[in-house]
Design goal:
CATH superfamily: dinb family like domain
Order of helices and strands: EEEEEEHHHHH
Radius of gyration: 17 Å
Shape: globular
Number of strands: 6
Number of helices: 5
CATH topology: Four Helix Bundle (Hemerythrin (Met), subunit A)
Structural class: mainly alpha
Helix content: 40-55%
CATH class: Mainly Alpha
Strand order of the largest sheet: 1-2
Strand content: 5-15%
Distance between the termini: 30 Å
């Protein structure tokens, strides 16, 4: 049992095996052609072996390649930053003045991926990522959440986001009701969103077990 954000408790599974994956960062990025001729990187690896592998973002290329490559690298770094944590560590609040923790940040980023790409941009009829009592994406966790499950769902949502991105030009307008942004803005925003929360993860990971670095 670990403390919940509302002062209650969050029930965790008794197995405290650390979430551990290979720590690899390889240079280079492969490309493929989508149906509309746009260049996009290969899909993110599925949950399982090599999920923690990171590909350095391209340093040259067209706008889509640069934006998508940078966002992919940041997404992969989210997984890298929580690798090696147990559920107890991931659901703790090592910095007492904030409700943020590793697990809550991963879950929040999953919601923002769905919100910006699938719901607001693509207007897909899918489940809202946050509960009615927290409709705009706080950092609440469910009693049955585990770090491995949260990371798996995050990876799946990133794959959906990448498919949506690859299927539209950067100038394509958002289809969601009342939305005025285009895909280029959504990609830029998610780079900012993910990088900002990775800064939080840097501090929280160091406060948890002393691990530093990218």
């Amino acid at each position: 049992m670990v403390a919940g954000w509302d002062g209650g408790t969050v029930r965790k599974k008794s197995n405290q095996t650390a979430f551990a994956l290979p720590k690899v960062c390889r240079k280079g990025i492969s490309t493929a052609q989508t149906a509309n001729g746009a260049s996009t990187t290969d899909p993110l690896p599925p949950y399982g072996d090599r999920m923690d592998e990171r590909v350095r973002p391209p340093e040259s290329g067209d706008e889509r390649t640069i934006l998508s490559g940078m966002l992919d690298f940041l997404r992969q770094t989210v997984v890298h930053k929580v690798s090696g944590l147990t559920d107890e560590q991931a659901f703790a609040r090592p910095i007492g003045t904030t409700e943020l923790g590793p697990a809550s940040l991963v879950k929040h980023l999953t919601g923002t991926e769905r919100f910006w790409f699938a719901i607001d941009f693509a207007a897909e009829d899918i489940e809202w990522p946050w509960p009615d009592e927290d409709p705009h994406g706080g950092f609440a966790l469910d009693p049955t959440d585990t770090l491995a499950d949260l990371v798996a769902v995050y990876q799946t949502e990133c794959v959906r986001s990448r498919a949506i991105t690859a299927a539209h030009p950067l100038d394509a307008p958002a289809r969601g009701a009342g939305m005025t942004f285009n895909l280029r803005y959504a990609l830029t925003h998610m780079i900012e969103e993910t990088a900002r929360h990775l800064g939080h993860l840097d501090l929280i990971r160091e406060a948890t077990d002393g691990q530093r670095g990218q």
